[in-house]
Fold these 2 entries.
Entry 1:
Amino acid sequence: MNAEEIEQLRRRMGEVAALPHEDAKRLAVVRQISQVEGPLEQEWLELLREDERMRLELARVTPPPDLEQRLLAIPQQIKPRTRWLLRTSRWVSALAAVLVIGLALWGVTAMKNHRLSRTLGDIATLAMASHETQPDLAVASSDWQVVRTALDGSLYFPIDRPKLDPSFKLLGGKVVKLAGASMVYTRWESAGRTYSLYQFCGKDFGINAPVARQEISPRPSPKARCNVIVWTEDHCDYALVIDGETTPAWASGA
Amino acid sequence: MGRRDAKRTMYKSWVREYAADLYRCAFRLIGRADAAEEIVQETFYEAWRSIDSLRDPAKAKPWLLKILRHRYAHWVRDESRRPKTGMVLDLEGSNPSSGAEEPGDVMARREWLQAALNALEDRYKVPFILVFLEGFTCEQAGEFLELPLGTVLSRIHRGRRFLREYLNRDERLPHATLRIHRPQREGGEPESHVGGAP
């Protein structure tokens, strides 16, 4: 046995000394010790003696004489919890945990929804304000391809248009900046009403998920009553501003 | 005999059979008689309150020890929040290793043993006490602590080695005044660092 093996055996001696005498691991170590010349046998015996001394020393603690009496008096002071109460308290705890988790999830969702509706309200207000100023058109054409080609390249997102009512007639478009965010502005006309369509990138406003089509009531306009529809279609976000009190059925989503 | 009487009888038998053992265990874990007494009372209080939750009365002792371990964990947590104060163990003039042990030396040695235990981290101290004081086999200690047998054996070995080194080192300092600080119990210590103090 070389020095390293002896050191390993010494470590194993320390580990197995606490095992019962009949334990196979302990017996194996004892057999190994008996086959090695040197001080290991003496160390093993000393280890066992030391363990026994430790056991004796550890047990040498005297409990206070009145401890038993005080412990025996406990049942006279309180009643044990009944099995029913123990079971019920477990159910109540589980129910409370579910409620807390549910409330937390609901709170997070409500907060997200609130933040989203506030952002959409801001976008609607910006779009309506822009619509009321009737921005000059950079490209005046009724041909969508012409408008798109003219504006393409000036934005970091691809220009597209949503499915609009067939009666819509394009008047032209331009790139505008609202609250620092670039948008594609296109003006449309149908049945004597003017429509402004704004295509924007939701991420510019912190919107990371598709927006379901919804009608937003922006802050009352000083000039005229407008409605704004906001939605996501084919990964593009749109805000459509409609002049007038009522929103056409096709625009509100259906 | 009614159910309540049966419970009382069972509780009384636990007090008579296990109170002293639990007190010894608590004392060796904490090193203070007042705190050990308090924890044992809390343990029996909790045991009586939840007596109906014990399914197998034959396993009462491990169950009581589990409660005690929880109470001890609470105590450690509360203690760690209190401002730490150094404790001076003045052993001037006592030298346990010099010749045949006199009664005074034996007492000093016992104090050293408890001081060494106080300086030992819980992860080594608890399995050590379960096996050497409570008479658990290493396997039972592993089940109780939810640790593999190999880990229990290794921790006992490290704990024992630390105690031996602690005792031997201090035996070489016959006129020592040892300043003991409570070991730091939460994380951050390398595996090889078994004792937290001094």
Note: Chain B touches chain A through 41 residues (CB under 8 Å).
Entry 2:
Amino acid sequence: MSHFPEGSPYDVETRQRLEQDAKDIIARYPQTRSALLPLLHLVQSQDGHITQQGVEFCADALGISQAQVVGVATFYTQYKRAPMGEYHVGVCINTLCAVLGGDEIWESLSEHVGVGHDQATEDGKISLERLECNAACDYAPVMMVNWEFYDNQTPESAKALVDDLRAGRPVPPTRGANGICSFKEASRVLAGFNDGRAHEGVQAGPESVVGVELAKEKGWEAP
Amino acid sequence: MGSTMTTLAPVLTKNWDQADSFTRTAYERNGGYQPLRKALGMEPSAIIDAVKDSGLRGRGGAGFPTGMKWGFLAQGTGKPTYLVVNADESEPGTCKDIPLMMADPHVLVEGVIISSYAIGAHQAFIYVRGEVLHVIRRLRQAVQEAYDAGYLGKDILGSGFDLDLVVHAGAGAYICGEETALLDSLEGFRGQPRLKPPFPAVAGLYGGPTVVNNVESIASVPAIVDRGADWFASMGTEKSKGFGIFSLSGHVTRPGQYEAPLGITLRELLEMAGGVREGHELKFWTPGGSSTPIFTAEHLDVPLDFESVGAAGSMLGTRALQIFDETTCVLRAVLRWTEFYAHESCGKCTPCREGTYWLKQMLKRLEAGQGSEEDLSTLNDIADNILGRSFCALGDGATSPIHSSIKYFREEYLEHFSHGGCPFDHAKSTKWGA
């Protein structure tokens, strides 16, 4: 029994493209096996989740067994075992966000969308995840869409966000690119391929600069 | 309180309010990459000495002296030396490295180049958690800009020094913040900690001598080279030198990043942040993330340096100050943290794998009001069997909320039992609650 869905076989063109990408990834590392995490992001950018096809591809590219690939792929939460939505929506439910309203957001959003943790809607548009801390606690409660920050959320803003995403209305992240890319496109960036959007968006959110602004107002400086 | 109030001292955060701060143009406009030129004219050993003399201690939580860590590197192994930056910021409450890399990735890149030159590494990695897409974009762009300017690659600025830098995205695993788990992950394996010794300085990445340092530590290096060890050491306390980013979150009027000399107190920081949210009072807080034992209002004047926080029964950790007011149920907070540790336990060692599982089961029952005072002894007992018996610090960290919450809030546990459930209205704790 496979740990991942079978997936559809890569056609010749796709395979050639992935093989070239894999070559580029492997070339970055002193030892080839270091390329496994990026390669898993790469096949996820093709399939939207990890498939048996993807596992075989990684194993072939690195000359390791499929069991070795599966052992790694099942360890990390970003590698998905079932198709996720075009927009993968995370709600932080670690203590601080949960207390500040993350629990309420999760509850109302999960009911609104009609799916649970790591599940996608039937139309493939939205999937939800209960997230652990995403290092944005000063912006709590925090949500992520395709690993972009949506800060200071409420149950209402969360539902509106998902409705907008489904309707194709633009909803840029609070701190991120000017518009949200798809889950597959995000996975390709994680694999190490630039999408040319680094210059987009703010350099910092208001909470990040609250200290430096106060220091300037008060005339405080390091010696 | 001391007679003089500690003020903020922005160094790393100084340019975050400039709209283009993440570009090389802005970084150079603010004096960036001048320290690199200076460093390349110095003997590598002189840079290590400067970092040692500055008193810089690891900013990733453990507080180990950075220069000393560099000094431990094995020599003459015949294997390449590596620098690996730990940018896997995932400790609950910790949120300083991510905004740093988003707003000013070049200070990290410059720190990597100087540090690699100092330790003789020609290949460096930034291992960044995978769940922060835009930060990864910014880091990669900064690295590319540094290559384009001749700050990375062959014969950097004509010095003869070569360095390649790879930004490597993780894939979702808190444990990869543990330095040897990080190395295993970077080698393409499950992120599980290694038995130490050997320490990474002797046998790290690919078995070669390796330095693993936190983002903020490495980002502090250019300023130390530029302005000198004495300048750095003029800030902070006797054994906790320099500045650090303090991250205030939770029930506070103005949460955010406050960069100050080590030794500042929560009372001082709260004053700057407008206090606990209006109409409420401080109940408990973490000095350095969820793995550091909680404090209460009685610790408001503890200097936030490694020694003072330790003497008061906790750890400075990552200066992740999560503030909770009186509307917060401490048992709920501890349960949620415990669920986190159970979720993130890598499963390698029995005390952590089984212990966090049982802590979670028990706390769920206790939060539902089904328990007795005897259960608190059992909780402490399970935690005692994890602490110091686990393979790595994750297990130890899991026990911090347990031990400290029972110590300070035993009555609140008992109230759950007499009440037959949680006596708190969770809605009041929310950001939009009363």
Note: Helices of chain A lie at 12-26, 36-47, 52-62, 66-73, 95-113, 155-167, 183-191, 210-218.
